[in-house]
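User: Hi! I have a protein structure encoded as tokens and I'd like to know what sequence might fold into it. I'm fairly new to this, so please keep things simple.
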């Protein structure tokens, strides 16, 4: 997956959260963001990685997002691995 494609998935996830005020409130509290901070950081790849981290923590939310956007269930995880900070360490 290209970084641009990963960012599109993450932006879709942010839009998905924004369409659910209760989930958006939880996300903003977890990130320590004000509405102004959210708008200012929305396009930063590192921030978009955090959006996907949040989504990936909740299976029900993840499934709803993928179904609403017609995405395979592994797409957010693959997008997260592409964005900064998403590398999986090789322990061998």
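Assistant: Happy to help. Inverse folding works backwards from shape to sequence: for each of the 92 positions I chose a residue that suits the local structure. Here it is:
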């Amino acid at each position: 997956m290209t970084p641009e494609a990963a960012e599109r998935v993450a932006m879709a996830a942010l839009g998905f959260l924004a369409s659910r005020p209760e989930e958006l409130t939880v996300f903003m509290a977890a990130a320590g963001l004000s509405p102004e901070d959210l708008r200012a950081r929305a396009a930063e790849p590192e921030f978009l990685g955090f959006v996907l981290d949040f989504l990936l923590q909740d299976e029900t939310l993840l499934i709803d997002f993928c179904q609403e956007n017609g995405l395979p269930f592994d797409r957010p995880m693959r997008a997260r691995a592409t964005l900064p900070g998403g590398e999986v360490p090789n322990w061998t």
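A useful reference point when you look it over: The CA atoms of residues 74 and 82 lie 13 Å apart. Feel free to ask if any position seems puzzling.
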